[in-house]
Each structure stands twice: as structure tokens, then as C-alpha cells.
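Record MoaB/Mog domain-containing protein, 327 aa.
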Amino acid sequence: MLNRLNLLTRHFARPYFTRPSAPTLSSPFLAGPFAMTSAAHAKPIHTAACLIIGDEVLGGKTIDTNSPFLAKFCFSLGIQLKRVEVIPDDEEDIIEAIRRMSSRYDFVVTSGGIGPTHDDITYSSIAKAFNLKLQLHEAAFERMKRLSKPHPMQPNFDWETPSPGLNAKLRMVELPFDPKVPAEHQAVFVADDMWVPVAVVNGNVHILPGVPRLFERLLENLKPSLVPRLTHLEGKGTHRFMISTPLPESAVAPFLTELAAKVEPRGVKVGSYPRWGKKRNTVTLVGADKEFLESLVQEVEAGVQGKLVSKEDELDAPEDEDRVYSQ
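=>
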């Protein structure tokens, strides 16, 4: 027991996230998504950015599925995802990117680099980016001990015995801490059966793991704390209408240019997307006002000689996939 105390003294002696006196539903570390207080909802969310961190993505070992998931998540809430970047596990790159994104966008999400190994440097790099220190999140450590399952290759591991494995686990619960910000605004548990907290730095940087199933679940469970900050949308969300056209892009370009200028003041974006090797291309209308978008459909169908579809390939006929049509 004495050895264990020697190992953990440097952690538990620090004043970071202290253990609540009693685990209640109002506890910022044990309650879930409602732990975020109203102060954290003060700034509305209009824009978002995503930072994917990992050598394995840039090296082709892993395919990034987290940024597409975030894109759909933001679209469903009416948040404009403005930027997605993939960078290596490099401290300088992380610091530069996260400072820039935090200064420009309302909701910033990072993915990856918060595991137990030497190249998991996201927490420490983001802490340096904002001149913060890493300190133990005691509630996360307690939840880790309670909710983690023993790995079959570590049959003798226990939380009372000092070991390299224990040190590695502690790396995952040392989070950036700003002494000027209430602790409950800096980390939140969003699911009762998950020990991983969503660390929040500089008010808008949300640090998530790179494992897709964890990333997706944490993000979905974070939604209740984000929705109150979407006041600019009045609950409308974002809608997309797709019109399939047999015309090439060059033929519909004049009409779409005029249409885009007309509807831009109403917050509608007009898109044109060629489908190489297919006979039909796609025109899109995207915006928050569903009724206004619906009112445009007939005009667009006539202007591009197309038809409203629910899927891009809805009107496709069997054809030679290798044939390329002029756009």
C-alpha cells in the first residue's frame, strides 16, 4: 500500500478535479450531459471545425470515419462545419492547428491521440497551446477503475500495485486544467457506463478519442448540452433537397448561378455535383427554412430539366460504369 501511495501522491495531492462529497445527479462529474451548467451555454454555436490527429490516418493504416460522422452530426443540428484537417502526432502541428481553430470557430472537435502510449500527446499538446498544465481528473480515474474490464493479456493487473501499465492508464486521465475556469466547465461525462470524459479547453475545444465507436457515442451524448446553444436556428436544423438532372454541369451553370444569387440572402446554398460515369448529375438546395426550400423545387426541376429525388442514384439506369460523359 505504501508503494502505491508513493506512486500516486503526486497526482492526488494536486487541486485539480476533487472527488465530490457524494455522487448525486447534480455532480458535474457523475451526472452525464446535464452536468454542463448554463454558463457553458452562453455562446451560441454557428460554426464548427474538426481536427483529426494521428500518424496512422496520414500513413493510410486507418481510414478516418470520424470527420464524416461529425459532418452529418453538425448538418443535422444546422451547425456549419467549416473545416476538417488531418495532422500527425506532432506537438507543434497540434498547437498551431488548435489555436487557429479555437480562435475562428464556435465548436471545435479533436479526434485521436489520447491513449496510453508515447505517441498519444493530444492532451499535453493542447494544454501547451493554451499555457495550461496537466492534472489528474480524479473522478475519471475512479470511473476508469470501476468501469474498465481487465485485459486478457494483463491477468495480474490491479489498481493497488505500481506498474508501467498503471502509469500508462494514468496518462489517459491527466487533462488540461485552467484554474480560472470552473472545473465543471472543463470536463463532462455524457454516459453513465463510460469513464472517458469529454475534456473542454478554452471554452470551445472538445477532445474526443479516435476510436470510432467511442467518438460517435460521446458526440451523440454530448448533443443535449449543445442544443441550447443553437438559438440562431430556432430548432429548424438543416435540410437538403436533391434534384437529379440529365444535363451536364456546363448546361445548368447559368441557371444555377442566377438562382444562387437570388436565394443566398435567404440562407440557401445551391450545389452542383457531377457524377462521373453516370448519365445524371445532382443539384442540391441546402438551408434551414424547409418551406422555402420546398417552394424552390418546382423552379429548379424546370431549370435543370430534372426531378426531385431522395437518393442520387434513384433514377439511374443500368449502364457502363467506365463511360465518362462530358460535363
